Amino acid sequence: MLRWHVSRLALALALALALALAMSAALSGCRRNRPIPFAGWAFVAAAGDSTVAVVDLESFSVRRRIPLQSRPAEIVADSSRHRLYVRGEGGPAGLTVIDAGTLQPTRTLWLGEKPVRLRLSPDGRLLYSLDARARRLRSFDLETSRAHREIALSGLPADFDLSPDGHWAGVTLGEGHVAIVDLEQGRVTASVTVGQEPGPIAIRYDGRQAFVANRADRTVSVLEFPAGRLITHLGLGARPASLCFKPDGGELFVSGSDRSMVVIIAAYRNEIDQPVLAGSEPGDMAATRDNQLLLVANSGANTVSVIGIDDRRTLAAIPVGRDPRRIVLTPDDQWALVLNYGSGDMAVIRRRTAEQPGKVGDRTRSLFTMIPVGNEPVDVAVLAR
């Protein structure tokens, strides 16, 4: 009888131990799968409200709305000074400077008659702006907050990019040209004829070639840079909307807004690679820093496509808000922030769930949360605390 009771006790202890180990493993799995928030802020420019919404990326909530004197169009983060530069449309303040520590505007600057684009120099010392009305490329010294230089352009500017060393700029002009600008000497050194209606321009990471999206004739022009020699025109078969380099610089992604696809260009061979289907009206794109994923905002489908870069496979089509137009990744690559222009909110997508194998239709779980940020959000910048 005693032996029978001992056996029952041993069995009960074994079952309790097994249950405890199972619960421990389950809890450990939950801890591993628990999302780790990014310790920083997302600053969202809401054009319809003339505000910047400050989103806490640890609590995923709006902490403050900063009123502006003009309708915001673009926002650039300066991590070295912990500042934000907000380009406005109309009104007396062309540029609003926001302190990311106090979350308060500190000053305003006049950018030009019709500023259309901002770029921060690679060394963080200068801020460049295009003035479409005056046809000028202007630079501002960020230490003194004063105008540094302005360079006259021969046509109506649309976009520009800076070389990695900060010595050169390529400016697309509405007349079908690209101006090559020596920023140190403050002058245009060459003008190159490209395709019709040139828009976005991207300079390769080694600074030796530039790629220009010609919207009217559905091509990308490849230029030797900064010499300004036309190398070739690449036919896309789609109207290019946005350009995005793979972080290692080896491939250039071009969203074809009217053909629901992303065209891939081998950036060192100047060849068209295999196109990948996206959602309706693909536009803005973001690539993860490990060169694994490309995320595409599809404004016509109200989705974000998640594409595996190596195998060219669509992993997910994630429903977001209405008319997504802007997408950025947090510096840790774990969260994608998608601005929905039509619904006035920001979709937060968790990378871990978006890239896991499964059915495309099951991807609603990849949408972590939606945050109301204001009417007509147009741009977002992320800074760590």
Write structural notes for this entry.
The protein is mostly beta strands and 385 residues long. The chain has two helices and 33 strands. Strands 20, 21, 22, 23 and 24 form a five-stranded antiparallel beta sheet that branches. Strands 3-2-1-33 form a four-stranded antiparallel beta sheet, with no helix packed on it.
Condensed summary:
The chain has 385 residues and is mainly beta.
Map the helices and strands.
Elements: H1 2-33, E1 40-46, E2 51-56, E3 61-67, E4 71-78, E5 83-89, E6 95-99, E7 104-109, E8 115-120, E9 126-131, E10 136-141, E11 146-152, E12 157-162, E13 168-173, E14 177-182, E15 187-193, E16 198-203, E17 209-214, E18 219-224, E19 229-235, E20 240-245, E21 251-256, E22 261-266, E23 271-272, E24 276-277, E25 282-287, E26 293-298, E27 303-308, E28 313-319, E29 324-329, E30 335-340, E31 345-350, H2 351-354, E32 367-372, E33 377-384
| Largest sheet geometry | 5 strands, antiparallel
Shape: globular
Query: Could you tell me the radius of gyration in angstroms?
Result: 24 Å
Number of helices: 2
Structural key phrases:
mainly beta; about 375 residues; single chain; disordered N terminus; globular
